[in-house]
Write the structure tokens for this entry.
Amino acid sequence: MNEETTTVPPVRHWPALDLTGVDFDPVLSELMREGPVTRIKLPNGEGWAWLVTRYDDVRLVTNDARFSRAEVVGRQVTRLAPHFIPAPGAMSFVDKPDHARLRRAVNAAFTTRGVERLRANAQETLEGLVDGMLRDGPPADLIERILAPFPITVICELMGVPATDRHTLHTWTQAILSSTQGAKASEQAKRDMELYFAKLIAERHGATGEDVTSLLGAAVGRGDITEEEAVALAGPIQIGGEAVTNNTGQMLFILLTRPELFDRLREEPELRPQALDELLRFIPHRNAVGLSRIATEDVEIRGVRIRKGDPVYVSYLAANRDPDVFPDPDRIDFERDPNPHLAFGHGPHYCVGAMLARLESELMVNTLLDRIPTLRLSVSADEVPWRRGALIRGPEALPVTW
């Protein structure tokens, strides 16, 4: 037995935990302590995969052509959700140069200009939601009144989805992002959403609009991308738009359970952009890990040989708690500088909607701090219910009063 095979880390089982609050996943904590490169087995799929947790290594794997997303297609890689089977042509599962070609089709919607054009309407929508909540008086559920309807409205406007269809899209998204309804329900919702976008995009082949489905329709019309690629692009963008509800829910849970942080942001508005970055770094926004990659040749990371064909996961959550990059990483420090967090990923697959997600979180946090300065939880922190079986973590309800 050679030295290399004796030092291969053991395979750790990583169950789908229903965590509450913003507690860091205890299994991930153990894996981080065990070493920079470990091996994991998740509840679904087959076999095991490598897990990389250190900041520099996560950046390397996510930006290195030797680790391929396209190679995952057709393989039953160990994974968290039963239904997340990679679709050929989806932007999440293509490599360069196809990835850049697909991204170009929608880039205009996600530039600073593309996102900023939504600001005025988004703020107006938000003010209307807050007006309604204040008019009805306390207590209220912040998720139901603000944090769920606001991102749905914004992402549907960006996508070019008519207002009459928004509730349907929301229902499909919830089914896709949940593992409690079973793989069958999630797959059906995914198919329904794909059929919906196929029809919408087909109607917009000659479109000149700035919304995503118009951009996709025009790109198909020009022959830049295929119908299938356009549909595979639309779904994940729509779904990703609603992740803002859960992320901002976690941020507000932190602010409402640590009044000193809430008060500080209310009194020092100039600190808010930096504070948002720190909250994005800190929140454990997902369960376990996201999408894997496959090594296309042997690669050594920190003395560990990853062989050609091996699946590899990175943990952005772990990278954001790397003490070599973020001193005292488990502490929320609004003055942390620099703060090069990886909350939106890294490399070619960096979140296309990062700027939009930031804008929405910024608007919600600012508007609630400024308009309802006495906002507080109406129940104790441990009575706040959290989503079960969710891929993206967040409170199911945030009962508040003022």
